[in-house]
Specification:
By secondary structure, this protein is α/β, with parallel strands linked by helices. It contains seven helices and twelve strands. The strands form two sheets. Strands 1-2-3-4-5-6-7 form a seven-stranded mixed sheet. The chain has a five-stranded mixed sheet with strand order 8-9-10-11-12, with helices on one face. Helix 5 (about 180-195) packs antiparallel against helix 6 (about 210-230). The longest helix is centred in the last third of the chain and has 20 residues, at about 210-230. Bound molecules: zinc ion (ZN). Zinc ion (ZN) binds near residues 69 and 205. Zinc ion (ZN) binds near residues 66, 68, 165 and 204.
């Protein structure tokens, strides 16, 4: 688990699993944690790491309802988890799916956990919308397409934009189960002006970006999706995102267009 400060009031904690990012944001005397690390040891250490850095959270948020982003409550069982309404609807429509996804992935990596995942109290948040954090507010913007649900979270006062599973240096656009190409493209179009207004852009997986890097990825990802949409036979994946694993994501995308 790596910790990096992207602003005085924002730190990014990166899990060793898929470089999954959790982001702690603070304003006034309040802090919030967006998404989560993955390994049991990371989740166990998380409260200490955040408290030590002055980011002990008062609430949890998740960018979307994929299991790898939902583990905040393992570290903070007393806190409520806020999600986009679309994510709450998805969790209700497929009860136990997040738990099953986690269990299956744990089994693949031979990971044992003390307890199964309990999501506890969920707060469905209207998106677009906002939530208060101390004397500031976090903007919530719809971000669908990778999955059927999701939101980007913009801490405009400190220029930190948490986009969820978009704009990653380590992953091609992934239209996963429930996702849709048109929604994905609409999300990229919606993210563009937010990226322009941000200083640090934190993807769900992989290192945070400066604005220029995020805009370059946005262009690459739009071009890739356009090629998918045109039904091009041989699409070259962006440089650095063309491993066997990324090819298999690409193959999955082809089944969804
Ligand atoms: Zn993810």
């Amino acid at each position: 688990m790596r910790t990096v400060a992207v602003h005085r009031d924002a730190i990014v904690i990166t899990s060793l699993m898929w470089q999954t990012n959790a982001v702690a944001l603070r304003a006034g005397d309040e802090a919030m944690l967006v998404d989560s690390p993955y390994f049991p040891e990371e989740l166990e250490a998380l409260a200490g790491v955040l408290a030590g850095a002055g980011f002990a959270p008062d609430a949890l948020l998740a960018t979307h309802a994929d299991f790898d982003h939902l583990l905040g409550r393992v570290a903070f069982p007393g806190l409520a988890l806020g999600l986009a309404e679309s994510s709450a609807v998805r969790l209700q429509a497929e009860p136990g799916a997040a738990q099953r996804g986690l269990r299956d992935h744990d089994a693949e990596l031979y990971i044992e956990r003390a307890k199964p995942l309990a999501l506890g109290e969920l707060q469905a948040l209207p998106v677009p919308g906002s939530v208060e954090l101390g004397d500031q507010e976090l903007e919530l913007h719809p971000a669908e397409g990778h999955t059927v649900d999701g939101m980007a979270i913009f801490a405009r006062w400190c220029g930190v934009l948490c986009v969820g599973d978009y704009l990653s240096r380590v992953e091609v656009p992934w239209i996963s189960e429930g996702g849709a190409l048109a929604d994905y493209r609409a999300t990229l179009a919606r993210l563009a002006p937010l990226v322009e207004a941000a200083e640090a852009i934190v993807p769900g997986h992989g290192a945070p970006h400066d604005r220029e890097t995020a805009l370059r990825l946005l262009e690459e990802d739009s071009a890739y999706l356009e090629a998918l949409e045109r039904g091009e036979e041989r699409i070259r994946l962006p440089k650095g995102r063309d491993s066997k694993e990324q090819q298999s994501i690409h193959a999955e995308n082809l089944t969804r267009v």
